[in-house]
Amino acid sequence: MIPIYWLIGFVVLVGIEIATMALTTIWFAGGAVVAFILSLFDTSIEIQLAAFVATSFVLLFLTRPFASKYVNSQTVKTNAQELIGKEARVTVEINNVLGTGSAIAGGQEWTARSRKPEAVYTVGTVVKIQGIEGVKLIVEKLQEEA
CA distances (Å), 27 to each of 53, 62, 63, 92, in order? Predict the structure, then answer.
């Protein structure tokens, strides 16, 4: 394969990475560099393609966790998962059929839905947070201890 094609591939892949900053194509750009170097030595297209694929996946699996840690370090963590297992108080009746419901948890009001589709929780009911789906609390009525 003509080396210029690997260079074009490299530039396109780096351009996509710069545009998205998603750490998706940079690994393949590295593979294109290795294939480019091999193409300078007149190796067969099969070897170039194999080197491209192998290098891309080795870079992906060995460096992605490290790169993700530092590149995405500006991501704001909300600690919302810490709410799971805690109590919340219903502020708007939770009714999955009607698509209504809110609850106060951690000092903030959240949209809330019942874990059991048929359950309805009235205003003032204390519920236990079973999970979070998107921006909705998934709750269940707090069981009274005997």
Answer: 10, 10, 9, 49
- Look up residue 126 and give its amino acid: V
Whether residue 106 lies inside any domain: the answer is yes
Cβ contacts of 68 within 8 Å, gap of 6 or more: 23
* 106, 79 contact by CB (below 8 A): no
d(CA 116, CA 101): 13
pTM: 0.49
Helix, strand, or coil (residue 59): helix
Paired strand residues for 103: 90, 110
Judge whether 126 lies within some domain. Answer: yes
Of 71, 93, 123, the one marking the end of a domain is: 71
Range of the domain at 129: 80-141
Between CA 69 and CA 100 the distance in angstroms is: 38
DSSP 138: E
Q: Are residues 8 and 25 in the same domain?
A: yes
pLDDT per residue as tens digits for the range 63-93: 877 777 776 555 555 667 788 999 999 999 9
- Token code pair at residue 44: 């067969």
